[in-house]
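Hi R.,

As promised, here are both runs. First protein below:
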Amino acid sequence: IHSYRNFFNPNICHWCKEDPGKLRKENNICLSCNMILYCSHCNHELLNEKNHQEICGVLEILLHNHPEFWETHNFSQEEWINSRKNLLILVKRNLQRNMMPYEIQMIMFAKSCFVCHEQRNLQTCTRCYSLNYCSNHEELLIHHHITNCTKLKSCYEIDRNIYYMTLSRCRYKFCELNATQIKKLKTVNIQQFLEKFAYTKCQAEEQFSSDYVSGPLTLYYGIMNQDLYINDLHCVVHIIVANVLDAHYVLLWEIMLHLCSKRMRHLRVILIGSKI
């Protein structure tokens, strides 16, 4: 599966995932389904035509026969989610095959105003490319920039970069070390740890590191290092002596589903500790 099909964002070119601000070009929306964008100055729409043609045809017919899926102005969050689920059911029924993850995301994460869920005449936040708004709610964008914009931008950049590089091109090798060495060198965060103890030939333009994903990445590195093969669709991870931070950032274990996506489909994380 080509990497560009692994995730979907309604505000960027589906093929190249490039930052529209860097390209300084407008994106063209698919005129048939109105759900997917492509770079206007490239042939990315043509390159993706074969993959998009089937679901695009189904969506075009359904949206013509069921205009209620477009009439979502002033929908509550619950009403919006239910409308997406109902559309998804119809699409699955008409496709008569299993849908790709990005195809499901096309429907569930369709472009709409983040307040009223209007789907027409929208503007997009040009910082994070993760939030859309109608003219009636433009003033709320200031609050978004203060609270969520930076976090959403980081999520978008991580999604984009994780599929630009393969794990084989960005695998860390660690030198022999022990707790005494780490304490002596006063390593206080994951970035310092990587700089002092890890060697890599990563070719990615940008790298992201965080103490919050140390747990899942340590487990993943152990799996790779021991050449273990995960053969189960459902996996369970127990975190012993878990603390408040483990509980707060438990959703970050989702990264294991991406790293082990060839087989693992469901991950259950059980926290065991007295301070949760």
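And here is the second one, sequence first, then its structure tokens:
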Amino acid sequence: MTTPLTLYDIPSTLPSKSWSPNIYKVRYVLNYKGLPHHTEWVEFPHIEGLYKRLGAEASDTKPDGVTPHYTLPLLHDHSTDALVSDSAAIARYLDKTYPETPSVIPKGTDALHYAFNEALLSHIQVTALRRLTLAKTNSIMNPVSEEYTRRMGEATLLEGQRLEDTDPKGEEREKEWAKLEEVFGKVDRWYGKGDRYVMGDVVSYADFTVSAWVIEEWKNVSRWHGGRWGALVKDLEKYETVL
């Protein structure tokens, strides 16, 4: 064991291996706080086994409301033996456990961050980003995860459709990008006029959440809304390092 904190992530064929927005949120937090940690890579089909081996509890359930839904990120703090899943829960845990580091959810803003995160995800998940990136994301998976996510996704999320058939082409794709730009226009209006970050000049978990979603397609969205999103990703780039 080289560091007290282990972040479990899902690998890909990208140079950095990391790709998941939800896991990037945690990586931003760890690096921003300057907390020594290391990454261990877990393929999709092996996530449930990891939880059971470590004795970790799932933070969510499947649509039936009963069956545990095992997802990453998962953080193991070897100094306290805590096992924490869910990006926001991990951020809160790190704020509480390491108070000497910069806070990412400052005291009195917990409800604000919860509401912001829920609003952002509800906008993104029902709009273009999923359609624009679903097939692309699957294509960068290692074979064992690619087969697993394809099989599970086509059977449940896509209701039997082939993954490739969900990827918009031509004029339809342009329309989807326009929808996404409209969504981020709404998010842009949540910021105070002239504010660099959600909380003004102070970086917080809310900014990490936005950047984690934008980073996947930042070259396409960087110029939208006065260049806000490109500037945000560039500002936080120093916290993206995979350790």
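A quick note on the second one: Residues 170-190 form the longest helix (21 residues). Let me know what you think.

Best,
J.
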